[in-house]
């Protein structure tokens, strides 16, 4: 059986160079991915970014060209800009029941991935990364975690992203078929989509198949959980190196990623009413672009050879955990 | 935590701080109406 622990071992290779070439390569991948999404919009844009990035990375390694794709800046920009989407009205729209379901989903996902790690079905850091994404924080959290923890950059990020995309696609196809059979109303359907589908776009699109009201409810729940993304990321990264005692207080500050502080600052501004609808829409599009570009970089750093060696087992484990929690949520919503 | 590790964290943090400043500048441009709706 292949050793999945290999996935979360940091790469020992020297830092890559060719910065200008890296910038050009990143721009090329991003433009091609955007063009592909424009031609065939049925496939989510991030799939193109990830896929084209992986192919370019494979080719660069084959040609022994060392490129540094500057994808960390867009990632951090995206994370900070995302704060502008937090608004206090959403907590009222999401409702107490919806927020309670979100909390239950996060707890169940964390517990199950912890169990999976204890049963040695996945290495600890990969189980943690899967949990971070699938708890509802999505691709943005998975990409942001890799910026702080080199052991998670590239292949583990790709696996976690693929899991989010796979389960999101499954929900998008299955939920609209299941909802009428189970007699779910708009509010329950919105909760089902927003709670169990990690990525915002897929969750809101799924809820939207039942009506505009469901889409709005799902969007509110997604904003509510995204408001906690900074907290989740800090909690996740703290698990990495336990000795938290530092000698001086100013040594403790850099332990919280700078982009999380930026996100909190912008979220506070947003809650104080700094942005109107048009500005929020403009910042949302900039956020889309930023994560889209960052994902091309994640694809580029993915070691396809490692991915091929470990096979589909980690993904299958992740999908099984999702099926279990999603079925539980569906059963609760259909009976309450 | 070793001093070397703390210094490394500080360097990473400085980069993240710079990125945050760029994001805030971008937000200021949107607020000032200099950046309209970027198509996605």
Biggest interchain interface, per-side counts: A-B, 34 and 25 residues
- How far the N terminus sits from the C terminus of chain A, by CA atoms, comes to 43 Å
Mean pLDDT of chain A: 85
Number of strands of chain A: 0
Residue ranges of chain B: pLDDT <50 for 5 or more in a row? none
What is the total number of structural domains of chain A? Answer: 1
Radius of gyration of chain B: 16 Å
The biggest sheet of chain A, with number of strands, parallel, antiparallel or mixed sense and barrel status, is: none
Secondary-structure element order of chain B, N to C: H
Q: How many structural domains are formed by the residues of chain B?
A: 1
The proportion of residues forming helix of chain B, as a percent range, comes to: over 70%
Mean of pLDDT of chain B: 84
Number of helices of chain B: 1
Principal-axis shape of chain A: globular
What does this structure look like?
The complex is a heterodimer of chains A (336) and B (40). Chain A is mainly α. Chain A has one domain (76-243, 252-335). Chain A is built from 15 helices and no strands. The termini of chain A are far apart. Chain B is rod-shaped and about 45 Å long. The mean pLDDT of chain B is 84. The A-B interface holds A 72-73, 76-77, 80-81, 84, 148, 241, 243, 245-246, 251, 253-255, 257-259, 261-262, 265-266, 274-275, 278-279, 281-283, 285-286, 288-289 and B 1, 6, 9-10, 12-17, 19-20, 22-24, 26-27, 30-31, 35-40.
Short overview:
Chain A is mainly alpha-helical and 336 residues long. Chain A is 75% helix and 0% strand.
Name the features.
heterodimer, A: 336 residues, mainly alpha, 15 helices, 0% strand, B: 40 residues
Task: Spell out the blueprint of helices and strands.
The complex is a heterodimer of chains A (336) and B (40).
Chain A: H1 19-39, H2 45-62, H3 72-82, H4 89-118, H5 124-148, H6 155-182, H7 186-196, H8 200-208, H9 212-226, H10 229-238, H11 249-252, H12 258-271, H13 277-301, H14 304-310, H15 313-335
Helix pairs in contact in A: 1-2, 1-13, 2-13, 3-5, 3-12, 3-13, 4-5, 4-9, 4-15, 5-6, 5-10, 6-7, 6-8, 6-15, 7-8, 7-9, 7-15, 8-9, 10-12
Chain B: H1 3-31
